[in-house]
């Protein structure tokens, strides 16, 4: 059954991997189902550490460390019911692999580094991965680093291919303190912060009498 003509298009959250130097899109990963909740935690970076630093108690050294946790569900139910698509032969290995390879260096990079090491060139820089952007609507396009990743496979087909799974992701927002202002992640973070400021400026401000007081 087709959707009603006036039904709003359902947007999905996901992760976009881009080249940190050129901003070229490397891969787009849309979550099959939007998580019902996101947990965001902000750890404040204050200059003072308590009573001994009274002159700096209200000073901020930089942006807070923001972490995001979410749980996404993946299943092959629709494909299996229709009897079409890769799920009929490999289950959800494809969707899981797309997520998992975000935290793996490419096999070509590993082989190239091994060749360099075998040739006696031991000083090899750690491999730089694509920059992940957590996209949760057009109002949240956030540069992140993946810090936690766990997969719970919950159901399998007769060939032991996973057909249902839950993926838990922990993300840390990258700020200008992490990468500087000239890095692509830095400019994206500044856009994210400035958008927060615009939302805050447009939010209605309460009056003091709402709080039961007349003045400060």
Question: Can you lay out the helices and strands and say which pair or pack?
Answer:
Blueprint lengths: L13 E5 L6 E6 L7 E6 L21 E11 L1 H6 L4 H4 L2 H8 L6 H12 L12 E5 L5 E16 L5 E12 L2 H4 L4 H19 L14
Antiparallel strand pairs: 1-2, 1-5, 3-4, 4-7, 5-6, 6-7
User: Mean pLDDT, rounded to whole units?
Assistant: 90
Helix content bin:
10-25%
- Strand % is 25-35%
Indicate the overall shape. Answer: globular
Structural class: alpha+beta
DSSP strand count: 7
Low-confidence stretches: none
Major β-sheet annotation: 7 strands, antiparallel
Span between termini: 61 Å
Oligomerization category of the chains in this entry: single chain
**Count of individual domains:** 1
Tally of helical segments: 6
| Radius of gyration from the alpha-carbon trace, in angstroms | 23 Å
The ordered string of helix (H) and strand (E) elements is EEEEHHHHEEEHH
């Amino acid at each position: 059954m087709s959707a009603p003509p006036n039904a709003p298009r359902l947007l999905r959250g996901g992760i976009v991997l881009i080249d940190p130097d050129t901003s070229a899109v490397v891969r787009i990963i849309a979550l099959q189902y939007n998580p019902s909740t996101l947990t965001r935690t902000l750890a404040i970076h204050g200059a003072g550490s308590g009573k001994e630093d009274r002159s700096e108690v209200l000073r901020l050294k930089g942006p807070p460390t923001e972490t995001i946790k979410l749980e996404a569900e993946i299943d092959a139910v629709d494909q299996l019911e229709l009897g079409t698509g890769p799920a009929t032969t490999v289950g959800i290995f494809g969707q899981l692999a797309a997520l998992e390879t975000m935290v793996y260096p490419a096999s070509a990079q590993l082989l190239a580094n091994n060749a360099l090491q075998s040739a006696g060139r031991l000083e090899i820089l750690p491999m730089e991965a694509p920059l992940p952007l957590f996209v949760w609507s057009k109002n949240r396009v956030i540069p992140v680093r993946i810090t936690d990743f766990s997969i719970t496979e919950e159901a399998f087909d007769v060939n032991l291919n996973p057909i249902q799974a839950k993926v838990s992701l922990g993300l840390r927002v990258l700020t200008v303190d992490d990468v500087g202002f000239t890095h692509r992640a830095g400019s994206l973070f500044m856009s994210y912060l400035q958008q927060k400021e615009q939302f805050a400026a447009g939010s209605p401000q309460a009056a003091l009498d709402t709080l039961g007081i007349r003045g400060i």
